[in-house]
């Protein structure tokens, strides 16, 4: 009997020890997550001189998490979500999320509100966007000598972009890129309504626009909700399954750019490009191969139901980061993953930051250089566009810039020779 009890004790859920690699990764991730709190802390000039002691002291005060929850895929009412950016951040806080990427479709308009809310809840926000694109198989067919069928097929592909607190470099160019996609969404939605009308399922344009909200480019979800409210379907799933699925009887394309073009734009503007939900693709291999050549950094592998081995292997084959997020919209129901439900291992989070941080640092430096060349209010706004707090207008430009940089860059990053050369010009 004693032996049985001993065996039971051995089988008991003893906490699994972290490896040395995991421990170092956790320390690095935690330090980056705490930067915003470090920056927001009210510390006078005398205390600033002791910055070397400040962050370790903060980490000692139970601020460090043994599990840092990242959710790198979420949506608000600024695209097709059901919660405002601030409500989304509050929900993330309730669910234990420490790092949240707001990735609305083809817009970054919700980022400032999310960042303001994040200051109240102690969450780190990664400014993001999910870009709607198309992938053409024509080039793949030529390469593979599959010229038996000359027909060209296209497939919708979504690419996630993650930026620093200063947002994209070359902001006007990137913003126009997104604007062109959003303009196409209006045309696309009207085409969908025209097809639905021919199917004897009429929906009014005013109804769709009211559901989408002021200034929000309508998407398929808004049309689906209009169908539901008009009594043509029993639920949103039926709206997609019967009419709005890719290639469905009421489906329509917009003016989405090529997936490769979107990846190149993200890389050019200082972002991290990640392929979203590859399991939704008919054949992800040619998509991943082509986007890797264009500069793709990662692929979603982790979901709320765990890691998908086939996409993990695909990431390994092409040397891509393995990431994931809930793709939370706030619509509720059994089919939706909750915020923070995706377990992103600390090593995966650290790998992401090791690739992303140098890219973000270069982008921030390029934005600063632009301000140095032309210290206008507009160029200062480029630096503070996605800043993490409001600052009194009485503060000097240098104080404002330093405050935003401290919320995102480590002391080591700011003291790098190349970055220091830029800062000295200020």
TrEMBL record:
Q: Where is the composition biased (Basic residues)?
A: 1-17
Give the Polymerase/histidinol phosphatase N-terminal domain ranges. 70-135
The ranges of region (Disordered) come to 1-20
Membrane-crossing residues? Answer: none
Entries under Pfam families matching the protein = PHP (PF02811)
InterPro entries attached here?
PHP_dom, PHP_domain, Pol/His_phosphatase_N, Pol/histidinol_Pase-like
A single GO molecular-function term is:
5'-3' DNA exonuclease activity
Q: Which domain of life is it from?
A: Eukaryota
State the protein's name. Answer: Polymerase/histidinol phosphatase N-terminal domain-containing protein
């Amino acid at each position: 009997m004693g032996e049985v009890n001993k065996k039971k004790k051995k089988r008991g859920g003893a906490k699994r020890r972290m490896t040395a690699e995991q421990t170092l990764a956790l320390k690095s991730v935690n330090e980056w997550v705490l930067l915003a709190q470090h920056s927001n802390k009210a510390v006078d000039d005398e205390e600033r001189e002791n910055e070397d002691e400040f962050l370790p002291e903060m980490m000692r005060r139970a601020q460090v998490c043994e599990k840092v929850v990242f959710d790198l895929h979420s949506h608000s009412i600024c695209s097709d979500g059901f919660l405002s950016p601030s409500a989304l951040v509050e929900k993330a806080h309730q669910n234990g999320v420490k790092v949240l990427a707001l990735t609305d479709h083809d817009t970054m308009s919700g980022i400032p509100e999310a960042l303001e809310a994040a200051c109240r809840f102690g969450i780190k926000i990664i400014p993001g966007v999910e870009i709607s694109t198309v992938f053409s198989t024509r080039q793949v067919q030529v390469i593979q000598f599959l010229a038996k069928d000359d027909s060209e097929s296209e497939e919708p592909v979504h690419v996630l972009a993650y930026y620093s607190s200063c947002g994209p470099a070359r902001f006007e160019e990137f913003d126009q890129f997104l604007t062109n996609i959003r303009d196409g969404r209006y045309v696309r939605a009207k085409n969908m309504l025209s097809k639905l009308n021919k199917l004897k399922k009429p929906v009014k344009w005013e109804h769709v626009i009211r559901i989408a909200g002021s200034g929000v480019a309508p998407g398929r979800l808004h049309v689906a909700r209009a169908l539901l409210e008009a009594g043509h379907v029993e639920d949103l799933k039926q709206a997609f399954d019967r009419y709005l699925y890719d290639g469905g009887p009421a489906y329509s394309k917009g003016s989405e750019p090529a997936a490769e073009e979107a990846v190149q734009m993200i890389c050019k503007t200082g972002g991290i490009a990640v392929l979203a939900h590859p399991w939704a693709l008919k054949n992800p291999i040619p998509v991943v191969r082509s986007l890797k050549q264009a500069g793709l950094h990662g692929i979603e592998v982790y979901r709320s139901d765990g890691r998908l081995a086939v996409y993990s292997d695909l990431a390994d084959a092409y040397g891509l980061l393995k990431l994931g997020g809930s793709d939370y919209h706030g619509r509720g129901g059994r089919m939706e993953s909750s915020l923070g439900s995706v377990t992103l291992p600390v090593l995966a989070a650290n790998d992401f930051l090791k690739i992303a941080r140098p890219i973000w640092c270069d982008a921030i430096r390029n934005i600063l250089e632009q301000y140095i060349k032309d210290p206008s209010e507009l160029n200062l706004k480029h630096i503070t566009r996605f800043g993490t707090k409001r600052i009194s207008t009485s503060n000097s430009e240098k104080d404002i810039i330093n405050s935003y940089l401290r919320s995102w860059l480590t002391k080591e990053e700011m003291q790098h020779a190349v970055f220091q050369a830029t800062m000295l010009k200020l």
